[in-house]
Design a protein that fits this description.
mainly alpha; globular
Length: 173
């Protein structure tokens, strides 16, 4: 119920505000053909996803903030099936990247967009400030892929894979 309107809002913002599509950036850092930038975007997204997925268990073993945050988020995830997790990861990854990176970042910039992305990832307890901080850093990384390549799909891929694997990990541990 949240992600469909967020996606529509992102596409409308991009279309009516900038007369462009939300999944491409007109002046990327990488000066190459679209197929090369597309491949680079997917490669960077996959590399980021693998790094974060491998880092998650390591952070849980070594940091109190990650363990506490894991304990707070786990009850939310426990009732979800594998299909629910996959659908939630797909919906959140696509909608959030369309909105924050695709529509918002070209207007507000990488830093402001990442700050807002972090701010909306919060919860009722103080421990959720760690989630906000984590989301801010991830927003910077997703946004950097978009800035570098001008292609949104690598950030979407990373976001979806990270959400799916980390929610699955959280449910099982």
């Amino acid at each position: 119920m949240i992600y469909a309107p967020l996606s529509v809002g992102a596409l409308a913002w991009a279309w009516f505000g900038q007369e462009r599509w939300a999944w491409s950036l007109p002046s990327p850092i990488l000066n190459a053909s679209y197929p090369a930038r597309f491949a680079a975007s997917l490669g960077l997204g996959l590399a980021l996803a693998l790094l974060v997925i491998v880092s998650t268990p390591w952070l849980l073993r070594r940091t109190a903030w990650a363990r506490t945050l894991h304990e707070e988020l786990k009850p939310i995830i426990e009732g979800l099936s594998a299909t629910d997790i996959l659908l939630l990861a797909l919906a959140s990854g696509l909608a959030e990247e369309l909105f924050f990176r695709g529509a918002m970042q070209p207007v507000l910039g990488l830093l402001a967009t990442s700050f807002i992305f972090g701010a909306v990832h919060t919860g009722p307890k103080r421990v959720f400030l760690w989630w906000s901080a984590w989301a801010f850093v991830m927003g910077l990384l997703f946004g950097a892929i978009f800035e570098a390549t001008g292609v949104l799909w690598g950030a979407v891929l990373a976001h979806v894979l990270i959400n799916q694997r980390n929610m699955t990990f959280m449910k099982g541990h």
